[in-house]
What we know:
The chain has helices spanning 2-12, 30-40, 52-75, and strands at 15-18, 24-29, 79-84, 87-92.
Amino acid sequence: MLRRALSEALLNSPIMHHIPGGPTVKAADLDDVREEFYKIYVVKDDLPKHDKQSRGKGQDARRQAFFRCVENAQHRNLIGASVTDSRRWSGSLPPNINTKSQPP
Length: 104
């Protein structure tokens, strides 16, 4: 789901970001990626049978899932992320930037 959210954010509001000592890549603001992720990530509390109090828990579940996905993707070198001028960027890494090989 993170890949879909990142793809949408890259299509809707791409930012060209220069990696220090590396290439310029297409990136997206992490807030834009999060917004797209929240649109497609459905949690149990979103279902109509749940009351308004439990829907707040759904937002917490989305937030936790998003950060788990980002952390996992960074750990596996599937995305890069950096903070520049108080902005957070995320983007797919070009193949020549990946430094670790990943199991299939």
